[in-house]
Design a protein that fits this description.
Layout lengths: L4 E2 L3 E7 L2 E9 L5 H12 L5 E8 L5 E5 L9 H10 L5 E8 L6 H20 L1 E14 L1 H13 L5 E5 L2 E9 L3 H10 L4 E12 L3
Antiparallel strand pairs: 1-7, 2-3, 3-6, 4-5, 4-6, 7-9, 7-10, 8-9
Helix pairs in contact: 2-3
Length: 207
Amino acid sequence: MTQPTIAQTASAETEISRSRFVATAHRVEGLDELAELVRAARREHPDARHVCSAAVTGPHGEASRSNDDGEPAGTAGAPILSAIAHRGLTDVAVLVVRWFGGVKLGTGGLVRAYGGIASAALDAAGVLERVPATELLGRVPVEDAQRLEHALRSAGHHPVVDYGADGATLALTVDDTDLGDARALLARLGVPHEALGGRMRERPSGA
């Protein structure tokens, strides 16, 4: 199964020994997006000392990258990456911007600071599970579309209706575990349909 990802962009902020840390978690589709996110953060915060980062991508989190951006090796990018991996997330990038306050935190202090603020941003972003799904497409007369849409919504589905000159298309995406029930419902409603598998549906964790 594809690993979960975050639900939304989110940030968290803390101050430790006069150093300010701001972390932001982003959805990404590939590691190549990380560099542009870092450039954007530098443009937004030109007075910051460090913009440290990490990202994990791929269906099973198989690709990753991190950068300490001038902090001692392993004290910034690695703990940010660990915060992502600990939650089993993928297609996520986390940037931590630091304004140095004049007090050195030491190796252990940096690891705790970067890992802690990255974790706070990820917690604020929430989690979306990704489950195997199938899209069901049915063609119906325009005059029947509204009634059928209502029936599907009453059964807990969220169909999308596309009206055309020669009919309407009902489309709904269902978890593969619910596929049998959904197809049986369409059959009872008299909706001929085709099933397009290999889809992925995102839903809030635990939903």
